[in-house]
Design brief:
This protein has 294 residues and is α+β, with helices and mostly antiparallel strands. It is built from seven helices and nine strands; from the N terminus they run αββαββαβββααββαα.
Length: 294
């Protein structure tokens, strides 16, 4: 798949080597039998859909795609290549996060192929050659003799809900130039969201995505972790600050008491009692207490 309309994927990203874990580290635990999957639930302008990512199919690709979804990389980006009966492609983000952009543009190694024929709903990375996968993904619209023939097109998951909405994506622009009227990828990168809205106003786009990692043992769910749509480190509010200050004062008072000897504690208690008695007597006389410096 490429801009010139052939059946190979095209990216046009940097070919910087990513600092991904080794294949052995990414594989599911063969000793304990634990298996990991993840649900990615996305809302779009064409309606919601859900992808099930399966780690055992392609552990390296699984971790890259899931991390990008978790970090909201695909949020608000367009489905820029929609070709009926073939595929829909996406993965050029409009994020301002430079670290996230660098991560997304770095390449990862290919996963070993699992020999799975492409059917409707299968999800894979788009690539341009060996070890070229970065951030772009595609969803197959049906069987294809050309998809899955290269190692970088190993499926990483499948659409398990909302495929009808994926078939509703606007497709009149077709492929990228010169075989269609769709956007050229370098122009998407240079012009960003404003370029797309101005020149391709009918293209559908992501809204937001939510992910849930799940681990199974012998088919039974043993761990589930949901990642919210946005995960930010926020400053504590004033109530939290007040609570923190009170806690610190209590701890300080406790340390002062614990650090004193028994004689010092008796002496301190005597002074406190004397001051309290002085205050009580003065209040009864209607006078303000006067405490002399000793």
């Amino acid at each position: 798949m490429s801009d010139d309309g052939d059946d190979t994927t095209y990216l046009g990203n940097d070919e910087t080597e990513g600092s991904e874990k080794s294949l052995e580290e990414e594989l599911d635990d063969e000793v304990t039998g634990v298996r990991e999957t993840a649900l990615v639930e996305c809302s779009t302008t064409a309606g919601p859909f859900t992808i099930s990512l399966i780690k055992s199919w392609a552990p390296i690709g699984y971790e890259r795609a899931l991390t990008l979804f978790e970090r909201s990389y695909y949020d608000h980006s367009h489905f820029f290549r929609v070709i009926p009966n073939f595929l829909v492609q996406f993965g050029i983000s409009y994020t301002d996060d430079q670290d996230l952009k660098h991560f997304a543009d770095s390449t990862i190694k290919d996963d070993p192929g699992i020999g799975m024929p492409f059917e409707e709903g299968l999800v894979s990375f788009a690539g341009s050659g060996p070890d070229s996968r970065t951030s772009q993904l595609f969803i197959a619209y049906g069987p294809s003799r050309s998809l899955g023939t290269e190692p970088w097109e190993t499926p990483i998951g499948e659409v398990v809900d909302g495929m009808a909405n994926m078939r509703k994506l606007y497709s009149e622009y077709g492929d990228g130039k010169p075989h269609g009227r769709g956007p050229e990828q370098y122009k998407i990168r240079n012009g960003g969201k404003s370029f797309m809205n101005e020149n391709y106003p009918n293209l559908d786009a992501f809204l937001t995505c939510k992910t849930t990692r799940k681990k199974f043992l012998n088919g039974q769910l043993i761990k589930e972790k949901e990642v919210p749509v946005t995960e930010k480190l926020e400053k504590p509010d004033e109530a939290d600050k007040t609570h923190t200050r009170k806690t610190a004062l209590r701890q300080k008072a406790k340390r002062l008491v614990e650090d004193r000897t028994p004689n010092e504690m008796v002496f301190t208690a005597s002074i406190i009692i004397a001051v309290l008695l002085t205050i009580i007597v003065c209040k009864r006389r209607g006078k303000k207490p006067t405490v002399k410096n000793s």
